[in-house]
Design goal:
2 copies of one chain form a homodimer. The relative contact order of chain A is 0.12. The first copy, chain A, is 74% helix and 0% strand. The termini of chain A are far apart. Chain A has 2 domains: 56 residues, Orthogonal Bundle (Arc Repressor Mutant, subunit A), CATH 1.10.10; 125 residues, Orthogonal Bundle (Tetracycline Repressor, domain 2), CATH 1.10.357.10. Chain A is mainly alpha-helical and 194 residues long. The interface between A and B is large, with 52 and 52 residues.
C-alpha cells in the first residue's frame, strides 16, 4: 500500500489523468487514497497546487523510462517507435481509452492559468526530450537529429492520444506512429516503406 | 456584438480554450459575455453541458475551413502543411501561447467524464478528417492516403500544441510539421528533403 504521502500522490495521478486537474477535488483524492483529510495539508502545506506540481513531476518523470523499454532494445529507431505506438494502442484499448499520457490533460489545463504547474509540465517534457535524445543518439543520429526525432515521437503520441480518446478508436495512434516512423527513416537515410 | 446567445457562445469558447471546461464557471461566462445570468438557462436549458456541446461544435467546426485556407491553394500537400504549421507558430507566439486548438483541452478533460461532450469533440474531429481528406484527394492521393495524411496533420498539430504551450517554445510545432511533411512526401512519392 505504501505510506500515506505516496498513496495521496498515486491517487491524485490517477484522478488527474482521468478527470483533469481542475475536475479533481481534494475530498475525492483523500477518499481514493484512504487518507484522513488533514494528512493532505500535512504533507502538502501549499495545498492543491503544490500537490499538483509533485504529481506532475512524479508521474511524468517515470514515463521517460519508456524510451529504455521500447527504443533501447530495438533493431533501429523505426522499429522501436513502431513497438512503442503499438504498445500504447493496446494500453488505450484495454483501459477503455482512459490510460494515455499522465500529464497532457493537466498540461493543457494549466498552460495559461498556473505558472508553477506549467513549469512542472515543462520540466517533465524537457526530461523526456533529453532522455529520448540520448537513446536515439546510440543509433548514430546526431544530437540535432536525435532531438528532432524525440520531439516528433512525443508530439505524435500526444496528438494521437487527443484524437484516439475522443474518437474511441486507435486509428489516430496508428497513423501518428507512421508519421514518426517516416521521420525516423528519413533521418536514418533509410528507404521509405510505403 | 451579435445577439446574447452568440455572445455567450463566443465568450465560452474563449474561456474554455484558455481555462478548460471544468475551470470555467457560468458566472464568468455571463460576465465576459455581458449577459444577464438568467439568459444562460433561457438559451441553454440543459445548463453547462448543453452549452459546452454547442461551443465545441460551433468553435470546432469553423476550424475545418483552415484546410481550404492553407492546403487548397498550395502547390502540393507538403508546401500547404508547411504553411499551416508556420501560421500556427505565429498565432501561438502572438497570443503568448494561449491560442491553440479550440477544443483539445476540453477533449482531454471530457474524454472519460462526459459522454455528450466527448461525442461533440468526436463529431468535430471527424468533420476535420473528412474535410482534410477531400482537400488532399485533389492532389491525386487515394482516399486511404488522403485520410492518413489528414490524421497525421491533425495529430501532429495537436501534440505540438501540448508541448509548445507547456514549453512556451515553437520548436515542437516546427518539428511536428516536419514529421507531417515527411509523411506527405512519402505518400506523394516525392524525395525526402533532409
Amino acid at each position: 500500500m505504501g505510506n500515506t504521502r505516496e498513496r495521496i500522490i498515486t491517487a491524485s495521478a490517477e484522478l488527474f489523468r482521468r478527470n483533469g486537474y481542475t475536475g479533481t477535488g481534494l475530498k475525492q483524492i483523500v477518499s481514493e487514497a484512504g487518507a484522513p483529510f488533514g494528512s493532505l495539508y500535512h504533507f502538502f502545506p501549499g495545498g492543491k497546487e503544490q500537490l499538483g506540481a509533485e504529481v506532475i513531476r512524479h508521474s511524468g518523470m517515470r514515463y521517460a523510462e519508456l524510451f529504455d523499454i521500447f527504443i533501447t532494445p530495438a533493431a533501429d529507431p523505426a522499429a522501436g517507435i513502431e513497438d512503442a505506438f503499438a504498445g500504447a494502442a493496446v494500453t488505450l484499448r484495454e483501459t477503455d481509452y482512459a490510460d494515455a499520457c499522465p500529464i497532457a490533460t493537466v498540461a493543457l489545463e494549466v498552460a495559461s492559468t498556473s505558472e508553477p504547474l506549467r513549469e512542472a509540465t515543462a520540466e517533465v517534457f524537457n526530461a523526456w526530450i533529453d532522455k529520448g535524445t540520448a537513446v536515439f543518439r546510440r543509433f548514430g543520429l546526431s544530437e540535432k537529429d536525435a532531438r528532432k526525432l524525440t520531439i516528433a515521437v512525443v508530439t505524435s503520441l500526444e496528438g494521437a492520444f487527443v484524437l484516439s480518446r475522443s474518437l474511441r478508436d486507435v486509428e489516430p495512434l496508428a497513423v501518428a506512429g507512421e508519421a514518426a516512423v517516416a521521420m525516423a527513416r528519413q533521418l536514418m537515410n533509410e528507404p521509405a516503406a510505403k
